[in-house]
């Protein structure tokens, strides 16, 4: 299975960022994976944002929990990330990744079975 990110590219401050990760090649309903969102701000390291399990349970980074929602749409084979009230500090390359085991906070590619190509999101007025 592969996945593809869809991103608006540019978002204005205070707005809501919505990203979707579409899985192809397999049905998400039959893949017992944990789907995570990770981001990398310019000049900084990777930051784990949260994860959703194959059963729909979600876990979030404490620093982002109040602004973040992760959901899955098995009918469209998608995992979505919603980040509310964005600021320029949310400017980053965003990745979706999947793993067969739940590892909260994992930011190394070796922790995941699939790692997306990433998409640039810029928050600017």
Give a structural overview.
This protein is an all-beta fold and 125 residues long. Helix content is 0%, strand content 46%. The protein has no helices and eleven strands. Strands 2, 4, 5, 6, 9, 10 and 11 form a seven-stranded mixed β-sheet that branches. Strands 1-3-8-7 form a four-stranded antiparallel β-sheet, with no helix packed on it. A hairpin with a 4-residue loop joins strand 7 and strand 8. The protein starts with a strand and ends with a strand.
Topology:
Layout: E1 2-6, E2 10-11, E3 17-24, E4 34-40, E5 47-52, E6 58-60, E7 68-73, E8 78-83, E9 92-99, E10 114-115, E11 119-123
Parallel strand pairs: 2-11
Antiparallel strand pairs: 1-3, 3-8, 4-5, 4-9, 5-6, 7-8, 9-10, 9-11
Stretches where pLDDT is under 50 for at least 5 consecutive residues are none
Major β-sheet annotation: 7 strands, mixed
Q: Residue-averaged pLDDT, rounded?
A: 91
**End-to-end Cα distance:** 37 Å
> Which band does the percent of strand residues land in?
over 45%
Helix content: under 10%
Helical/strand content category: mainly beta
What is the tally of beta strands? 11
Number of alpha- plus pi-helical segments: 0
Give the overall silhouette. globular
Could you provide a short overview of the structure?
The chain has 125 residues and is mainly β.
């Amino acid at each position: 299975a592969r996945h593809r990110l869809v991103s608006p590219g540019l978002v204005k401050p205070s707005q809501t960022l919505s990203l979707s990760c579409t899985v192809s090649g397999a049905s998400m309903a039959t893949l017992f994976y944990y789907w995570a969102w990770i981001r990398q701000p310019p000049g900084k390291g990777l930051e784990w944002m949260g994860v959703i399990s194959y059963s729909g349970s979600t876990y979030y980074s404490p620093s982002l929990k109040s602004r973040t929602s992760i959901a899955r749409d098995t009918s469209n084979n998608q995992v979505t990330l919603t980040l509310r009230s964005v600021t320029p500090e949310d400017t980053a390359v965003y990745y979706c990744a999947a793993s067969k085991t739940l590892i909260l906070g994992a930011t190394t590619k070796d922790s995941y079975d699939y790692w997306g190509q990433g998409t640039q999101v810029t928050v600017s007025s």
